[in-house]
Structures are given as structure tokens and as C-alpha cells.
Amino acid sequence: MVPQKLLIVGSGITSAVCCSLISRDPSLSKVFDLVVWEKARGAGGRMSTTRSPKDQDNVADLGAQFITVSPVYAQKHSSIYEELLQSGKLEKLKGHLEGMKNLPEGTKHYVARNGTGSLVKKFLQDAENVAIDYNTHLSKLTIVDGRWRATTLDGREEIFENVLLTMPVPQALQLQGDVQQTLKEAGVHGNLDQVKYSSRYALGMFFSEGVSVPDFPWVAKFIYGHPVWRYASFDNRKRNQDGGPTAVVLHTDVAFGEKNVERSPEDLKEDLLSSARDLLPNLPETQDVKCQKWRYSQVVKSYPDSPGFVVGSTEPMLLLAGDGFTHSHFDGCVDSATKVVEFLKSKFC
Ligand SMILES: Cc1cc2nc3c(=O)[nH]c(=O)nc-3n(C[C@H](O)[C@H](O)[C@H](O)COP(=O)(O)OP(=O)(O)OC[C@H]3O[C@@H](n4cnc5c(N)ncnc54)[C@H](O)[C@@H]3O)c2cc1C
């Protein structure tokens, strides 16, 4: 049997878990040649870990912070958690987390010692024989002779039998070519249009190794009633790393993010830095500062009934998956990937 080409768009956690599950499945791995296109220069998406340009050892999670697991998900994804904990990719949070509310009893917080991006990389590494093209931005999908012709922003074209989109839903709805008409004919476009995300900015403050950074009684804290900030952490301490350089990460409140969503991170950076210094006085001089806009941060309204994924077309196959179809966290993305793989098995094996 000649394998079919499956293009997976995006290299966030949903894509990475899909790649891992397909590659580890003896029958599915024979069906598909996997190709990942990612518009950024590295993997991770909203679970990526950023390095200070001035110190490669100083890293910070500007997006996802914790793997917070309810007892239900701990049981449902027990084999994944066992593997991540045994391999040391995931550890129990040791420091004090202040102010996280409304969690089911028995919920546990885990952290990735090397940053949440290392989890995405782990799943991608599990998947042998996946071709990953970074800096490759899909802009158009056109149906040609019963297959998808995928075109990048810079005009490269390639033919695929199957396509799986894992980017935030509004970004899928910006694709050109035959995608929008196909989604309308499948009767899913209206529901996709209803999927909504919050917007936030993240600020990363990197300090040189050896510089004294004040102690606080928490490693991470949720903030309530502040006009700008919602969350602050000492990122290295949060990741159970006490030695080495320190990075402070702050996330803005959603209302602030939405009000300022059309501003550029460069334009906001100095204002945010000054506000961060008011919030956390006595921080030393920074080695470097990064400001990141998350236009599509977390899902506030998911696809009706949270199906995990939707079928945009069967011939040629077009699937849409990711947190927009479940919940905006690690377990939601694992659920989405698992449901995609179950569907592929039922269709192709
Ligand atoms: C500030 C913040 C804090 C969060 N905190 C937590 C937390 O503590 N715990 C938790 O579990 N979750 C948290 N989340 C949510 C979690 O990060 C997301 O649910 C998860 O990362 C979504 O993964 P994904 O693979 O579905 O999508 P994404 O990570 O968004 O991946 C999609 C990928 O597609 C790429 N892409 C988009 N368009 C194109 C295109 N046209 N061509 C090619 N590539 C494209 C993007 O660059 C991206 O890499 C947080 C998110 C944010 C932003």
C-alpha cells in the first residue's frame, strides 16, 4: 500500500500528540506519511518556551504555565501522565501557587522542568518519520483532482491527500481557496464562526545569573481586581529550578488584552514593564524583556458540544482539531488528538 500524505498544520500540543499517536500505531503509521507545516520558527504554539537572546539558559513559559490535572483527567490520561512523570518531563509543582480558584477536589499541578515547550517537543520526537517544516505558513487550500493543493504565504505549493488543521479556529477561517466553501457545504462553518478566544499579553523579564532577585511567598500567583495584571510568576522557581538565572512572567487580564489587542507588543512593552515594576517592587535591572501578544489565548466559547474535532470534508479529507473543539488546556488538546486518531483508525484501518 502506498502511504497517503497527511498535512498537519501547526506544531502545538494537539499536532504533536496526533503525530505521536499516529506514529506509534502499527496500522495507522503505515497509512500516512506525516508532514507538519508550522508558521513559527519552532514548535510549541501556545505551549512554547522562550529563551533570553542574551542567555540561552534563561528560559520562560510565556504561554501555558501548569499542567493542572483533575482526578477525572488523571484517570483518563493515566498512561500519558505515567510516561511523562517517569521520564522526568513532568514534575509535581513544589512551590506555593497562590489564588487559583474553583478546582475540583484532588486536582494536582504539574510543571515541566524545561518549560512547557519541552512537552510538545517530546511528543514530536516520539513520532519518527515526520517531516516538519518551520517558517512555513499555510495560506490557501484548493481542491485539485480530488486532493488538496496547499499553498504557503511565499508561494510554495504541495499536494496532499489529507489535511488536519490544528491552529486556533479564527485562523483556520482566514484560509483562502476552497476551505470556506467546503466548510459551508459540510454545515460546520456557522458553528466554527462562533468559537471565541480571549486575548492577552505576556511579559517576560529576564535577569542575569547571579543578580539578587527578591523572594516572594509564592512562585506563581493569580491576581484579582488589578487593571492590568492577572497572573505573575517567577518562572524558574515555578519550574522547580531554584539555581540559575531568574525570569519573571506576567500575563495581562483579559479585559486589558481585549482593549489593547490592536496595539503592537513593541508599542506596549515599556508601559507594561513600568506597571510590572509597580506590581513587584525592588526587581533588579533586566538583562532582556520580551512582550508577546496572544491574540488567540484561551477558548472562552468552544465548538458546540465539544466534539474534539470536526470533519470539514471527507473527499479529500479535511479535519479541524485543537482546544477550540474541547477545552483550553493540555488535557483538552490530548482529548482532541485522541479523537482525531480514533476517527482515522475507523476510516483507514
Ligand atoms: C497565556 C496563556 C496561558 C495558558 N495557560 C495554560 C496552562 O497553565 N495550562 C494549560 O494546560 N493550558 C494553558 N493555556 C492553553 C494552552 O496553551 C492551549 O490550550 C494549547 O497550547 C493549545 O494547543 P493547540 O496545539 O491546540 O494550538 P496552538 O498551540 O495554538 O498551536 C497551533 C499552531 O499552529 C500554528 N499556525 C497557525 N496558523 C498557521 C498557518 N496558517 N500555517 C502554519 N502554522 C500555523 C501556530 O503558530 C501554532 O504553533 C494557556 C494559553 C495561553 C495563551
Automatic annotation (TrEMBL):
Q: Which InterPro entries match?
A: Amino_oxidase, FAD/NAD-bd_sf, RNLS
Q: In what residue span(s) does the Amine oxidase domain sit? A: 105-340
A molecular function (GO) held by this record is:
oxidoreductase activity, acting on NAD(P)H
Q: Name one GO cellular component term.
A: extracellular region
Q: What is this protein called?
A: Amine oxidase domain-containing protein
Organism of origin is Notodromas monacha
